[in-house]
Fold these 4 entries.
Entry 1:
Amino acid sequence: MCTGVALYDTSDSSPLAAFYIGKSFFAAIGMSITGASYYEYLSDGDHDLFEVAIEELEERIINGKVTSYWIYSDLRGGLPWDAAFTYQTGEYGNFPHIGAHCDGNIKEVYGAITDWLKNVAEQFHVPYGIVYTAEKITAALHYAAGENCTSMFPFENGFAFQKEAPGMYAGLGRYTTSMLRMVYPYNVLNGKHLQIKVVHQTLLDWINDDKERGVLRLLGEDRWIWEVKDEHLTAVNMALGEIGILVAWQPERSKKRIRKLP
């Protein structure tokens, strides 16, 4: 199992500020940084990743030569990495977001990761963030970027988020204002999220009306943490998905037995 973090609409954070966020992620989870890579355009207009030492990546970022990059811990040797951090802009076929992922026992790293995210959100403008679990780190990586039709729930459309994101599909990115991607164990929300209408009340009031809908905590100016226990995630997602405020919601298909012809 592994834990993934995705932060969206992060274009207000500079590549250098994000670099130090990334280094603090590895310090928080107690893993050493073993390498890094950055994106660069080739002469034919395509792009590729180039491997460098972490010190060289920092220098290239400071000199304005690099905008999108990966930092990773690869103690075992080979892919997938043990942990990874990425900063993506609207270049190279992607859209602005930050991803941070760590392989290992969720019970051992969840507290460290959520504490790290809380500190990041307090210091930087993070309009929307999620923490989720995945079976493999590759799935966590793809999920943050909305790639490979990766989903975390049986009632989730794996294609829907990518089409909503800015970038290839020129999506509206409503998950940072008037919708949510889905509901996860740990969610960073802004004031616009809490004013989303849930039938005849706001999301803020809807959450506070029932303790099984999770706990809201003020994080800073116009930012909140919404934490939902695992045993209540399905009910919360279904309630909000059925009224149309979850980007990736789709009703779970019933598994009916097909009768064979005699």
Note: The mean pLDDT is 91.
Entry 2:
Amino acid sequence: MKQATLALVPLLLLSACGGENDTPLQRGDSSTNPDTPTSQTPSTGQDCGANFSAERSLNKFEFSGVFWQVEGERLQSKPEFRLYADSRSLGATHTISSDKTLCLLAANVFGSINAETWDGDDNASFKKGELYYYAPEFKFKTGLPDMTSLTDWRSKGQPETVTQPLESINLTIHYRDKDNNLITLGDPQTNLNPIILSCNQTDFDISLSLQQVANSALATLDPAYCETQTVGNEAQTFCLSAGFSQNLKLDSCKFDLTKVSLPDQRGNKTSVQVSGLLEFAQDNAELTITDIDL
């Protein structure tokens, strides 16, 4: 079994998708609930031919550590890791026998690394005629470990890792500009496509450690998970942090027909259903779409 063992990068990675100030062009169905993914049954629409397939290399892995916050469960950040296609993603191929617009769009999104030309209205991210790329992204998220305080963590032997089941997985199709910024247009909730992955691994190691925190951030953090230490002649605050261990043991995942919103060159989104595989190698993952239903 191949395993995805990733190089160590800082746990506290500050990352965000671009386009927070983008002008929405067209909104999709906002009734989608990203916390309750369900497999979709095939629709009666025409597909893209019996031999449709698309493969795309997802080469960028990002891990985000979080602190316990005072806002409560609704606003509490959760440990997550993301994998998506950035400008260094070179692997892509597709097979298609249909000339339907949606089929061609799906082939470009999931099986091409070629630049596309923006044909929509000018907005904060793209001007008409500018080049962009499609960037599929999977986001894995889990709950915080069962630690009631820093004292509780220490009473349990200060474990460096604990095992947690996945809480949710979302598949999002971003635009990527020439500067490698990920951009999503419209209501953020319409860009989150809940997906059920059946993987060789169902539980994941969550790393726990004390991390120094800037004084400006303390107002949002739960003081029960923090303490002040003297470093040299200065008093510094450290808080308990949790994040996915970067020594992932994922090998392969598959998913049945699932609704995905495909963005096009004008900023419109159209829902299709896709099924496929996610195969992990040493330093990337290969996304293969094996079936599509319009």
Note: Residues 1-46 have pLDDT under 50 and may be disordered.
Entry 3:
Amino acid sequence: MDALWVALVAAGAAIIASATTGWFTTRAAQAQAKTNLLVQQEQLRYAQGEARHQQRRQAYATFIKAVGTVQTKVADLTSVAHDAEAFEEILPGAREDRACLMSATHEAFLEGPAHVGERVRELYNAVDRYWAAVMRMRDAHRTDDTTQASDCRARVISCRNALGPLRIAFVEAAQGALNPGEATAAQMPSLGSAST
């Protein structure tokens, strides 16, 4: 009988040990699966954030490049405003570049955030004023109105000069949106100096 009890106790112990091992194995597998899920979710969030960052960066870069292209074309138009034939030769390409700028403006504006969108709008409007001033100067040259042409040239120069600070303001806002931690540190001195 002692052998039977020993066998029963050994069998019971084996069953309990097996159940305990199975329970711990199941719990470990569940914990590992949960950890894997959390890691995958974090990797997905990171990849989405990185893709969003790159999309925003590309929109900003396309916009500022389009601004530069149109600014150059408008400067070319300015230099030949007195020559109707040369002006009309450059104008179609300038209009195409302006259309590209409008498209890039919409994309950059939609990327936001609001303070960057405001800088986008300001810079686009300034380029638009520059364009309009050159068109008025061309019209003044066509009518041979030297006084009006001179006034228009002054307006063109004023519009051109206004672009520099607006480009800088856009770039700073865009950099702040792309690198928020750095923007806060960079803005602190300017905020302090503004209050003094």
Note: The chain has a mean pLDDT of 86.
Entry 4:
Amino acid sequence: MTMPDMSLRTRSSARILARMGTAGLFLACGLVGGCVSTSDVQSQNASRERRAAQDPEALARIGDAAARQNDMKTAAAFYGKAVALKPDDLRFALSYAEALASSGRADEAISAVRGALPHMAENGKMRLTVVLARLLTASRHNQDAIALLRPAITSRPDDAALQIAMGVALDTAQDHAGAQTAYRRALAIDPSSLSAQNDLALSQALAGHKAEALSDLRRLRTLAVEQGASDAQIATIDGNIAIVYALEGDVQNARRSGTGAAVTDSDRRENALFYSLLAAGGGGRDVMPSTPAD
């Protein structure tokens, strides 16, 4: 029996494909059985999407990527999906709350943290309590923040972060003496806390002791640089130095110090206007301590 000429057959197939061009490629692939169809690709993509939709880590990574692009609306959407799948994960809850707050949805951030609290272990509860207190304070629900923090401090009197959060809430409620007591308690627990030192100095300025506050903040900035503090921590201290200058009516120095606390030209313009208004008003009623993370 004569065997078929395979080389001729191969050449014939090649000529057929050449005549068909790319438009007939998928049809040809179907005939020879060596390619994946469009429907197969779509099915595989859909399968991957379904798996990703059930993977909280994958969803959080998408949220992280969006946050790095400053697309906080998208970040919040994906962090929210991750939280729904794994409500006891502190990382997801914190990221979700931050994204919501950063996109101007403070009330939703507060609700998200309240909803996450029952799912957390003890340490997670304390971290979220601090975050919730800061969100409430930023939303001017000072008394709600204070009421939240009191029992938490009673159960964990050695937690410096809770004391600092209480100080910020009290400062915003114009109870500067009470705030300074809270900051000093935090420093008794953690003497190296930049947050407590920073907020104590600003609280003194808000209480009218501006020269003392300015001296303490300058010293703190030098210490922070010597200790290798992050740029964000140093920028926060610079911002508070600028606030104290503005409270003194020294707009020129306020703007100069505030330059170090601004990232963009828009930030610098907004800060300059804020310091001018603060100096003109001569008071700190709407000033909240800006706390660098330790």
Note: The longest helix spans residues 231-248.
